Amino acid sequence: MDPISNRFPLRLTLGAFAAWFLAIAAIWLVTRNLDEHSAPAIFLGRFHILIVHVPIGLLCAALIFEVLGLTSLFPRLSDSVLPCLWLGVAGAMGATVAGYLLMAGEQIEGKDMTLHMWTGLGVVVLSTLCLCAKLVRVSPLAMSALLLVTVGLTGASSHFGGNMVHDNDYLSEYAPDLLKPLLGHPAEKEASVPNIPFGEWPIYARIVQPILDAKCTECHDENKVEGGLRMDSFEALAAGGDLVKDGDIPGEFVAGKADESEMILRVTMDPSEDDFMPPGKREHMTPAEIALVSWWINQGASPTMTVAQAKPDASVTPLLDELKSGHAK
Ligand code: HEC
Fold first, then answer.
1. Cα(164) to centroid of ligand 1, in Å?
2. Mean pLDDT of the 241-264 span
3. Which residue has a Cα nearest atom 17 of ligand 1?
């Protein structure tokens, strides 16, 4: 191919990149002030989960083919790098447009979301660069290096995306014990909890927070901030979510009044209601858990009050006894 005939594919690539950039910018403009879920955006956005595997596979294949093409065993594999890159770049562009729609439509926020978004947009930039580099025929070594960085970023982006769907211990949970630390498995919580007499347990930290950790923080912590609400610390819970910021409710809890507290209303309403928490097929809070959290709110929702300082209450006495004996074990 002479350099002139290379110009059209290069222009096509740059044109596609410009169109992609404008598409993302347009979605950003239209959705940035959205304050509720957008059904059309979510409908289209959910295809992200399907499309996203296309660029992952193709960009990995491009790297493998490029490297194997350097060997005398598979010299003709180099010819397949270009088609892989064309389709990989198109897939990455499609996946990020759908992903952006999903993020904006469902108003997903949080650390993993931010990392996933920027690394994902980065994959489009890098893979487009790979395609241009291939079209202008940089050296195979430079090509392999560029592809390696692109595949590395794709891996990082996939990891952050995976973290949003699964718990952080998804990979390590069933790993052999030897591998667990290598996979970053969180150490057993019990070990770090000081062994103090039951009466001195701070109710929030030792009773309420573990319940929220088990049933709510999957979607309400620094990694995922659904409804603008974090429930991974007393301060975050007290600060409240979107409803509080918009002035629709005074707080996620109303000290002394569990039955007026949004966080209790959400777990006690009819589970078929849209607002019920947790949404979907996730495990509901048990009546015992609801009773304990309600008790804490009715006692004033203090961040520090201990079991001994709180007034006993018939609804929780047996539950506290259970916790105590569990603790004594
Ligand atoms: C699967 C994800 C998920 C889980 C798990 C979950 N929530 Fe939510 N939560 C959401 C979403 C999405 C919203 C925003 C939409 C809405 O307000 O219904 C939300 C909003 C809320 C709000 C309203 C916050 C505000 O100020 O707007 C409260 C209160 C709440 N959740 C409580 C809980 C409680 C309590 C639990 C644990 C029993 C829980 N959530 C578990 C997804 C989840």
1. 15
2. 94
3. 227
Half-sphere exposure of 242 (CA within 13 A, CB side): 12
Contact present, 96 and 121 (Cβ < 8 Å): yes
* Residue 23 CA to ligand 1 centre (angstroms): 31
CA atoms within 13 A on the CB side of 121: 12
Write the DSSP symbol of residue 220: E
Q: At what angle do helices 111-135 and 81-106 cross, to 10 degrees?
A: 150
Question: How large is the angle between the packed helices 287-298 and 317-328, nearest 10 degrees?
Answer: 110
Nearest CA owner, ligand 1 atom 31: 277
Taking the centre of ligand 1 as the mean of its atom positions, its distance from the CA of residue 54, in whole angstroms, is: 32
Residues 96 and 23: their CA atoms lie apart, in Å, by 10
Q: What is the mean pLDDT of residues 193-198?
A: 78
CA–CA separation, 206 and 210 (whole Å): 7
Model confidence pLDDT, tens digit, residues 267-277:
999 999 999 99
Q: Judge contact between 67 and 77, C-beta under 8 A.
A: no
Q: Are 240 and 248 in contact (CB under 8 A)?
A: no
Q: Whose CA is nearest to atom 29 of ligand 1?
A: 263
176 vs 217: CA distance, rounded Å: 26
Residue with CA at minimum distance from ligand 1 atom 33: 277
Q: Whose Cα sits closest to atom 12 in ligand 1?
A: 226
- Summarize pLDDT for 132-142 with one digit per residue, the tens: 999 999 999 99
Domain ranges of the chain: 3-165, 190-328
Q: How far is the CA of 51 from the centre of ligand 1 (A)?
A: 28
| Cα 190 → chain centroid | 26
> Where residue 7 falls among pLDDT bands split at 50, 70, 90?
confident
Distance 297 CA to ligand 1 centre (A): 18
